[in-house]
Amino acid sequence: MIFDEFDKINAKFFSESDEFIRKLKMKDLMSKMDQVLGHTKNLEQDVERLTNRISDMQDDIDTIKQEVER
User: Fold this and answer.
1) What is residue 70's three-state secondary structure?
2) Is the pLDDT of residue 2 over 80?
3) Is the pTM of this model over 0.85?
4) Distance CA 9, CA 67 (A)
């Protein structure tokens, strides 16, 4: 009987500790996902800036070509 109670308490403890560990892992995973999303957003902004710079450079090249043709 005492051992049965001990087993119940032990099982409950490990069940609750497993749940706690799962929550910690989930919180860590969510934090890492937020970091990845932040990096992705920064990369998207970098790509947009580079695309705009390339477009500006292409406009400059077109302007120079027109001036040379005159």
Assistant:
1) coil
2) no
3) no
4) 87
Structure tokens at 40: 């992705």
Q: What is the dihedral of CA 33, 37, 40, 41, to 10 degrees?
A: -170
Instruction: Using the structure block, give the residue that is written with the tokens 């932040």.
Output: 38
b or e along 39-69 (b: 16 or more beta carbons within 10 Å of the residue's beta carbon)? eeeeeeeeeeeeeeeeeeeeeeeeeeeeeee
CA atoms within 13 A on the CB side of 40: 6
DSSP states along 30-62? HHHHHHHHHHHHHHHHHHHHHHHHHHHHHHHHH
Q: How far apart are CA 60 and CA 54, in angstroms?
A: 10
Q: What is the mean pLDDT of the chain?
A: 92
